[in-house]
Amino acid sequence: MALLEINNVTKEFGAIRALSDVSLSIQPGEVVGLMGDNGAGKSTLVKIISGIYQPTSGALSFDGAHMQINSPGEARRLGIETVYQDLALADNLTAAENIFLGRELKYNFGPFRFLRHSAMNQRAAELFAELKSETRADDYVRQMSGGQRQAVAIARTRLADAKLILMDEPTAAISVRQVAEVLNLIHRLKDAGIAVILISHRMPDVFAVCERVIVMRRGTKVADKPIAQTSPEEVTALITGAKETA
């Protein structure tokens, strides 16, 4: 059974049609690349999956149940997490404090409530160990590399027990070494049975970690192929329109 199914979804903003009759499915533990030029409809599709937008028409199913995802909070409760390009981390807090931000562990002492810093640090360290990341729980985010920041953002989704993670350009503007670290994090998510939709312009990254690639152009899905049955040249042709469909 598919984890996520999108059936004939269209999204209109007044007279502008951002998505037109898009259908796709994501299996549990599958890593799928979502590619397309600017304005292709990738961001609109991701915002529908994450509950920011609702489709004009069409239907979504998640974990076998037909539903309308009305907000990002509802998406998170279902097990859908999004790691945005800007990561939304607080530089002045530690890795552990960022992971638990808004979900802090606390204990009561009379009428007072105190943060359980040691428990949060321990759980953060466990999450980094699961991800095989060298990021440390008590390091401040402002001192971290781009790869370490991604590890913090991904660990935060693991705290929420995500089933599907949407990753928006996670390897943009970071070094080659940090790119390898982020791709390893994606492998760890797959090993844990978590599905990933990787939104990326970087062809080598998509071909390195994804089992399938979906290509969008002008609001429509023009290809949905196993990585083993396509090539960077074909995907580039599909993105640019040199090849219509595949």
Condensed summary:
By secondary structure, the protein is of the alpha/beta class. It is built from eight helices and twelve strands.
**Biggest sheet strand line-up:** 6-9-10-3-11-12
Characterize the biggest β-sheet: 6 strands, mixed
Instruction: List the helices and strands in order.
Output: EEEHEEHEHEEHHEHEHEEH
Return the CATH topology of the domain at 4-92 and 161-240.
Rossmann fold
Helix content: 25-40%
Oligomer: single chain
The chain-level mean pLDDT equals 92
The fraction of residues in strands falls at 25-35%
Number of helices: 8
Low-confidence stretches: none
Task: Please identify the top-level CATH class of the domain at 4-92 and 161-240.
Answer: Alpha Beta
Shape: globular
- Rg from Cα: 19 Å
- Label the structural class: alpha/beta
What does the model show?
There is one protein chain. The chain has 246 residues and is of the alpha/beta class. It has a domain at 4-92 and 161-240: P-loop containing nucleotide triphosphate hydrolases (Rossmann fold, 3-Layer(aba) Sandwich). The chain has helices at 42-49, 72-78, 95-99, 117-130, 146-159, 176-191, 203-209, 232-240, and strands at 4-13, 16-26, 31-35, 57-62, 65-67, 80-83, 106-109, 112-115, 164-168, 195-199, 212-217, 220-226. The strands form 3 sheets. It has a 6-stranded mixed beta sheet, sandwiched between helices. Strand 11 and strand 12 form a beta hairpin. Helix 5 runs parallel beside helix 6 (176-191). 41% of the residues are buried. The mean pLDDT is 92.
Helix and strand topology:
Blueprint lengths: L3 E10 L2 E11 L4 E5 L6 H8 L7 E6 L2 E3 L4 H7 L1 E4 L11 H5 L6 E4 L2 E4 L1 H14 L15 H14 L4 E5 L7 H16 L3 E5 L3 H7 L2 E6 L2 E7 L5 H9 L6
Parallel strand pairs: 3-10, 3-11, 6-9, 9-10
Antiparallel strand pairs: 1-2, 1-4, 4-5, 7-8, 11-12
Helix pairs in contact: 5-6
